[in-house]
Amino acid sequence: MSSETGEFDVVILGMGPVGSMGAILLASAGLRVVTIDRDEEVYQLPRAVNLDGELVRAMQPLGHADALAALLQPVREGERVGFANSKREFLFGNRVSNFGVNGWQPLNMFDQPELEGYLRATAAAYENVETRLGVEATGLEDDGAGVTVTIERDGETTTLRGRYLLAADGASSSTRRQLGIGWHDLGYNHDWLVVDVITRPGHTLGTTTLQVCDPDRISTYVCTKDPYRRWEFKLNPGETWDEMLEPAKIRELIETWTPQGTYEIRRAAMYQFHAATADTWRVGNVFLAGDAAHQTPPFLGQGMNAGLRDVVNLAWKLPMVINGTASERLLDSYQSEREAHAHDLVEWAVSIGRLMEHLAEVERAERNGEPRPSEPGGLQSSGYGQGREQPPLRDGVVLAEQIPVDAAIGALFSQPIVSNETRDGPFRLDELLGSGFAIVGRDAAALSVNEPANTIAATLGITFVDLSSLDTVRGHFDRGFETFEAMVVRPDRYVFGGSNAEWSLDVVINALGDALRLN
């Protein structure tokens, strides 16, 4: 689409996975979007490799989930992900299920060029999305009413204007630099060699993803989407980037895993793994997202996932502000929600890196007959806690007074596969919730509200869902129903609050209206 006036609701810098998904979500909400990227084609080498079920679920209301899932290879049912010693003997970890709280496989491997190409093409297909590829954003000016972006191509400059700017322009974000936003360093900066291969017949590579805690070489092996595999090798003291990139060195490292001739090098690259978050994620009408806002070591596979959650968060808030339903102040909750969430994930990734180092030192001590080193504080080696796949929200648009009552508050709402007598075959529960706010009750009585609460519900277009006629086929109804009779679910499927004998649904709905700062 071409904008007659040059005015857009949102300008997006960067059309990688985060920017492209942001464009899809915002366009689906009816906003006019323009995307800008310096590269005309997607980057043809792998970087991220894992997509969480939460992000597949985010595409479900838009009708894109099945097409997206078709590009993914779920981690094999029953396979293990965890820590190993120098002999690659499994020490501890988790077995992987192929069904999670979001109603999709929790861990999914993909090939980034393929996935990114799909997201970019899907975004560009929307009539209310304009794409500007092969151009460089050279400046921005926020006058309070909107943002003007200067773009350049082949020496010619032009300007685009949007009410808001979403900067998904990567770890070296020019937007972040121009705004003078600094970093909060979370204390992990180490050099690693990353090697991606294409497997050939006769390879001896297993399907267990391992954090190998070898005193001689800490490394990670990832069973990515077939026919690909990945290693990450931590540099030892005194090693240089140049020597690690030597073909002979790479063969030396790989061929302890699989013989020569059973693989082809697809990519070998040096990285300094960082753990950091931006000091601020919003300046006026400009928002940072993805690697521009946070960077993490890859041990949890959460770098891209965290960035996608950023745009999922903004994609329901920006339309409410732009269409006048909610106050501009609602956007203040973006950083308070996303920074804490991303910070938790980055810290967990760092703790995995430190746990690998600790386990390697334990094995070294055992080899040398030395005392076992004491465990450093702050190591977190087990899941995300509370039986949830991701850390919960603890600030923002959530009924904070109820957080001590039940772990469901601020957590993702469970999506089982269900059935009833009125539909042919099983279906995922979100199909009844729609794409906006929903109130889900144990039965019809739990959904009764008074007139003021009903007015708020109508303003927000809330969908009411009665579970009493549904049977679960796979998964389970949210465990929050052990405490609450009904729960208010946000468009991003996080639970705002719940009703019970202490909290009427009318009170919870009024609290939602206050949290959203309805106009």
Notes on the protein architecture:
Mean pLDDT is 91; it is low at 1-5 and 380-388. With 519 residues, the protein is of the alpha+beta class. It is globular, with a radius of gyration of 24 Å. It contains twelve helices and 26 strands. It has helices spanning 17-28, 53-59, 65-69, 112-124, 174-178, 241-244, 247-254, 303-322, 333-368, 430-433, 451-460, 505-516; strands spanning 7-13, 33-37, 50-52, 73-74, 80-84, 90-95, 107-109, 129-133, 136-142, 147-153, 156-167, 183-199, 209-212, 219-222, 228-234, 263-278, 282-283, 286-288, 294-295, 417-419, 427-428, 438-441, 463-466, 471-474, 486-489, 495-499. The longest helix is centred in the last third of the chain and has 36 residues, at 333-368.
Task: Write a brief structural summary.
This protein is of the alpha+beta class and 519 residues long. It has twelve helices and 26 strands.
